[in-house]
Amino acid sequence: MIQRVRGFQDLDGVAAAAASYIENLAARVARLYNFGEIRLPIVERVELYQRSTGETSDIVEKQMYVFPEGEQSEQLIALRPEGTPGVVRAYLEAGLDRSNPEQRFFYSGPMFRRERPQKGRYRQFHQFGVEVFGRSDAVCDAELLVMIDDIARFLNLDVTMEVNSLGCAECRPAYRAALVEWGRAHLNELCEDCHNRIDRNPLRLLDCKIDVALTKQAPGSLDFLCEACRAHFAMVQRLLKATSIEFVINPRLVRGLDYYTRTAFEVLSGDVGSQSAVIAGGRYDGLVEALGGARVPGIGFAIGIERLVLAYERTLAAPSSARLHDKAHDPDAVGAVAGTKDANGSRRVDAVVASLGDAAIERAFVVAHELRVPGGKAVELASPERKLKAALARANKIGARYAVIIGDTELTRGVVQLKDLKAGTQREVATADLIDEMGATT
Fold first, then answer.
1. By 3-state DSSP, what share of the chain in percent is helix, strand and coil, each rounded to 5?
2. DSSP-assigned letters across all residues of 360-377
3. How many CA atoms does the CB half-sphere of 415 hold within 13 Å?
4. What is the pLDDT of the chain when averaged over all its residues?
5. In the 8-state DSSP scheme, what is residue 168?
6. Is the CB of residue 259 less than 8 Å from the CB of residue 150?
7. According to CATH, what is the number of the domain 13-171+225-320?
């Protein structure tokens, strides 16, 4: 009997149904946040991962499936080990970094890494991921974390969200130097892989799976942040608290890939064994430029479908009394297709929410989330770095029906300005009535 290759698996029955459900649910939530789908090839050139993921990463050094493009070719290609570099490559190949930088994509599909198989870790695995280009603001970072929380709540999962800031090009060198000094002081206690990482990529000391206990004593990144990075991270925390998202700050959380900057995060589950991270991601402001594009910031995350299936199956197996279900996060509230459709059947962005002034940022963030969940509206939250004219131009560009505008006056009076971009009218609406007002005139 011919058996499947080691590290590869079959999914059928409940596991297959759970995987499909999770992927479909994540796509529906992504559309509420105005993400559009992108489909990527499974094979890419090896150079793409060498220049993005990093030549010192375990993925490039040990785990990629690499083979010649043809019998006579010296060009090496690889089965994709992760999704972000391919999305960036497609973004650049389409010229979007210069013609239309702000983009929001989601993707799903199989990835391949030649690593030691274990529970929750396979050589072929599936990811669902999102990427945002053209946004450097902390509001965008927090928005993705709230989106992750929505998905976890819809699945009724018991997870822990850990967040950190890795700093930027200005402040990270000092942190890097501190890790090098610490690593050399503990050289005899570190594993062989960490010996190689100390000078080449010292941040990856903290990502070691062997020296976990020891690296808890290593310096944390938050002590080395510059003023701008501190303010950025403080805003992320402020907005998460405004939407009652529970999180833990882990100053030694790093991502195992070279391109991450500032905000980094992982979502952990106790139901999947030692491979506890089920969702992970962060900001990568230098990656587009490193791959030959313009200086465009980016941020994204990926869901490990197989790991999330394990966590979800445990949830399904738990007694109904063991978990309280939040009606505001009932999967039925997402709808068969997120957002409203135009007469021709194409999906429409219901609204862009814009804040005017620092005081209104928090309220706009909460309003945007209330419109999405449980409101069921497809909403994009404008960058607070944009002036109103630019936010309205963005709303028109993406075909939004409404602009919801919140400034200091609206904030104090508990109202918003609801601008109908199709009719060209604007009126004041009580925040509590906003969903009904938008629904009544759609």
1. 45, 20, 35
2. HHHHHHHHHHHHHTTT--
3. 11
4. 88
5. -
6. no
7. 3.30.930.10
Q: Are 134 and 103 in contact (CB under 8 A)?
A: yes
Three-state DSSP state, 221: helix
Amino acid at 236: V
Cα–Cα distances in angstroms (integers) from residue 325 to residues 109, 262, 330, 331, 423, in the given order: 29, 34, 8, 11, 40
Backbone angles phi, psi at 192, to 5 degrees: -65, -40
**Which run of H or E residues covers position 406?**
strand 402-406
Q: What is the pLDDT of residues 214-255, one digit of tens each?
A: 888 899 999 999 999 999 999 999 999 999 999 999 998 887
What is the DSSP code (8-state) at residue 328? G
Peptide bond into 374 cis (omega under 30): yes
Distance (Å) of CA 78 to CA 43, 127, 235, 292, 394: 6, 17, 39, 20, 37
Confidence of residue 336 (pLDDT cuts 50, 70, 90): very low
Distance of CA 93 to the CA centre of its chain: 22
> Please, is 21 exposed, middle or buried when counting C-beta atoms within 10 Å of its C-beta (0-12, 13-18, 19+)?
middle
339-440 CATH choice from 3.40.50.12280, 3.40.50.800, 3.40.50.150, 3.30.420.40: 3.40.50.800
